[in-house]
Amino acid sequence: MEYQRDENDIEIEGGEMADDKEFLRGPLLVRNRKNTTSQIAIVGANSCPIESLDYEILENELFKQDWRSRKKVEIFQYVFLKWTLALLIGLSTGLVAFLNNLGVENIAGFKLLLTNNLMLKDKYYQAFAAFAGCNIVLAIAAAALCAYIAPAAAGSGIPEVKAYLNGIDAPSILAPATLFVKIFGSIFGVGAGFVVGKEGPMVHTGACIANFLGQGGSRKYHLTWRWLRYFKNDRDRRDLVTCGAAAGVAAAFRAPVGGVLFALEEAASWWRSALLWRTFFTTAVVAVVLRGFIEFCRSGKCGLFGKGGLIMFDVNSANANYSTLDLIAVIFLGVVGGILGSFYNFCIDKVLRAYSIINEKGPIFKVLLVMVISLLTSCCSFGLPWLSQCIPCPPQLAELCPTAGRSGNYKNFQCPPGHYNDLASLFFNTNDDAIRNLLTSRVEKEFHISTLLVFFVAIYWLGIVTYGTAVPSGLFIPVILAGASYGRLVGNMLDDLSDLDVGLFALLGAASFLGGTMRMTVSLCVILLELTNDLLMLPPMMLVLLISKTVADTFNKGVYDQIVKMKGLPYMEAHAEPYMRQLVASDVVSGPLMTFSGVEKVGNILYVLKVTGHNGFPVIDEPPYSEAPELCGLVMRSHLLVLLKGKTFTKQKVMTGSMIVNRFRAHDFAKAGSGKGVKLEDLDISEEEMEMYVDLHPITNTSPYTVIETMSLAKAAVLFRELGLRHMCVVPKKTGRPPIVGILTRHDFMPEHILGLYPHLHHYE
């Protein structure tokens, strides 16, 4: 048999890297990659084999027969079920987001109330012991869940969701165990006082919920309802996961329109109008669910849970008038935010690489690292407010000053009666309350410049060192916190020159920092407007986001793109790299090629499946089945396994397509949920059966996407990505040659592969 490259091939030998610079720049897994037939990437802290998803619609005889036999009522059921699942995703994600908020607010509330009561009694050492003790217990709980149950739940999860929607299937990234750990790990991690957000994990949670609901039923749990079989394919699951990601953003920020735009701009690689409608419907359901729960909590039945409405940080009361001089300040905020954001990404990249060395040593080391970071965070949160001066309480306040309980924002800390500690008001709060304090107008709250500077430096670096530990950790909230403190700091410095309120400067600072790290514009703009309920700030916010993104793009990529690359996930970009224009499709195809005949011997098929990890094989028709050798199509590995298990073999080499069509149904070849399909080990083929033949025509995709061998690699890459392909057949330009030159897969378009074959193209990067 001949050999073909597939997405499971690997080019890089294992062992330690010879070049230290490559470790600082390349994917983390290159250091310990073994020579194997499976392409691998980092999931959690482990190197795992990955495959591509089958987003292409396969057109073989069985699937055509299935579509022809569908009645109008079945088509209606399919459409109805799509909308029903979108509704269930919205309801489930909204419920999980509410429970997440409830858990965080009550756990953090109990911790802060206990510490505050001890502080009021001047028991400062006991207060620190209680504060740090609660934090470290919660941190250990979050880390243990991540380290021992679902390592894939660590981090924000947005890079993994983005990779899945690009067509990359990595183990456990959307598994039920990951969903469980993501929910509870996020509650414990945020409640432990880490400088992390629950927003990124909510996106991953929404995607996990969507994947769980879209599994297409389960024979194990007797959920094999006839309707559910329609969703046993990657294409429909991809659409559901897109809805889940949008629902996660909508639930985290209470920004339904922003959720749709986030999925469109950042998460999804393929989009169409029908999907826009469903994601919008899903996020609308989330908004209604959250609104209902918040109204329920206004009666005080939710413990220490905050009573804020759907608008999380209402700054609508601040003065939004701005002059030409203010626009110059906005431009300055954008430039500085872009520089700070790109440096933030640079530091996160280096910290993640350093942590990978620790995390690889085992789960116990992951937990120990989390404990160290927890202790550092507790020391900063409790120790730094002692550097701040006490400020007299503003007169005619609606709320009590200083705060007697947890929910107020004027923390007494060590100050005398009638005074509050402004730095403690930021550190001794939940992250949401700290952001709310920074976005309030000067009339309601005053912060010293020194306070804002200390808080900015602390949050900036704590956010960097915390991300990459074994806890579910979002980047949105740390970035908003750092950006808002830096923006308010600039607003305080320009107090005499500007008409703009310092709270609005804080909002613009947060926008500039988000633009500098995330590199999103439209979705961030809408999310921030929905968060703050301040439409008058739209023009300066658009300006600051555009400037910060432009400035940051000159230094490095967005934080999620960096993490995707670092994990070794073979992400297909929307554009082709410049060096691809110097090559044609046949230049990167490896051979010789492995093919099957239209009617193939069982032993040959079994041998090929055993010695290769390929997932697609060309089927060639030869005389007497055709006048000359011709490409019949492409057959999938999973379909071959199902066919072999059914044992529809013949002793003669004859076509038996009608027998196979009568024996099997299309849903027999549908993709099983969570990798529960037929495996090679499940086959029991006797020696006699090995010499028999099987007809591959009924399961062969007779219309695979093909390109001519002289097509530029750049054009082939764009086509591959836009169509969401797993395999692309390369056919010869001239007759008289074999009907197929080779197969292009995702791996063949990766820079590491192409530049490894043609090192002289490095200067085109």
Automatic annotation (TrEMBL):
<dbReference type="GO" id="GO:0005247">
    <property type="term" value="F:voltage-gated chloride channel activity"/>
</dbReference>
<dbReference type="InterPro" id="IPR002251">
    <property type="entry name" value="Cl_channel_pln"/>
</dbReference>
<dbReference type="InterPro" id="IPR014743">
    <property type="entry name" value="Cl-channel_core"/>
</dbReference>
<dbReference type="Pfam" id="PF00654">
    <property type="entry name" value="Voltage_CLC"/>
</dbReference>
<dbReference type="Pfam" id="PF00571">
    <property type="entry name" value="CBS"/>
</dbReference>
<keyword id="KW-0677">Repeat</keyword>
<keyword id="KW-0406">Ion transport</keyword>
<feature type="transmembrane region" description="Helical">
    <location>
        <begin position="364"/>
        <end position="387"/>
    </location>
</feature>
<feature type="transmembrane region" description="Helical">
    <location>
        <begin position="447"/>
        <end position="464"/>
    </location>
</feature>
<feature type="transmembrane region" description="Helical">
    <location>
        <begin position="240"/>
        <end position="263"/>
    </location>
</feature>
<protein>
    <recommendedName>
        <fullName>Chloride channel protein</fullName>
    </recommendedName>
</protein>
<comment type="similarity">
    <text>Belongs to the chloride channel (TC 2.A.49) family.</text>
</comment>
<keyword id="KW-0472">Membrane</keyword>
<dbReference type="InterPro" id="IPR000644">
    <property type="entry name" value="CBS_dom"/>
</dbReference>
<feature type="domain" description="CBS">
    <location>
        <begin position="699"/>
        <end position="765"/>
    </location>
</feature>
<keyword id="KW-0813">Transport</keyword>
<keyword id="KW-0812">Transmembrane</keyword>
<dbReference type="InterPro" id="IPR001807">
    <property type="entry name" value="ClC"/>
</dbReference>
<dbReference type="GO" id="GO:0034707">
    <property type="term" value="C:chloride channel complex"/>
</dbReference>
<keyword id="KW-0851">Voltage-gated channel</keyword>
<keyword id="KW-0869">Chloride channel</keyword>
<keyword id="KW-0407">Ion channel</keyword>
<feature type="transmembrane region" description="Helical">
    <location>
        <begin position="275"/>
        <end position="294"/>
    </location>
</feature>
<dbReference type="GO" id="GO:0009705">
    <property type="term" value="C:plant-type vacuole membrane"/>
</dbReference>
<feature type="transmembrane region" description="Helical">
    <location>
        <begin position="470"/>
        <end position="490"/>
    </location>
</feature>
<keyword id="KW-0129">CBS domain</keyword>
<feature type="transmembrane region" description="Helical">
    <location>
        <begin position="78"/>
        <end position="104"/>
    </location>
</feature>
<dbReference type="InterPro" id="IPR046342">
    <property type="entry name" value="CBS_dom_sf"/>
</dbReference>
<feature type="transmembrane region" description="Helical">
    <location>
        <begin position="502"/>
        <end position="529"/>
    </location>
</feature>
<feature type="transmembrane region" description="Helical">
    <location>
        <begin position="325"/>
        <end position="344"/>
    </location>
</feature>
<keyword id="KW-0868">Chloride</keyword>
<feature type="transmembrane region" description="Helical">
    <location>
        <begin position="124"/>
        <end position="150"/>
    </location>
</feature>
<dbReference type="InterPro" id="IPR051280">
    <property type="entry name" value="Cl-channel/antiporter"/>
</dbReference>
<keyword id="KW-1133">Transmembrane helix</keyword>
